[in-house]
Amino acid sequence: MASPPRASAQDRFKDPRAAALAELIEPTVSAHGLYLEELALTAKGAATILQVTVDYETGTENVDLDTLAGLSEALSVVLDHAEEEQKAGAAENSAAKPLVDLDSYELEVTTPGATRPLTEPRHFSRNLGRLLEIEAEGQAAINARLQDVAQDGIVVQEIKPPPKKGMKPKTGPQRHIPFGSITRARVQVEFS
Question: Where is the Ribosome maturation factor RimP N-terminal domain (predicted)?
Answer without folding.
Answer: 24-114
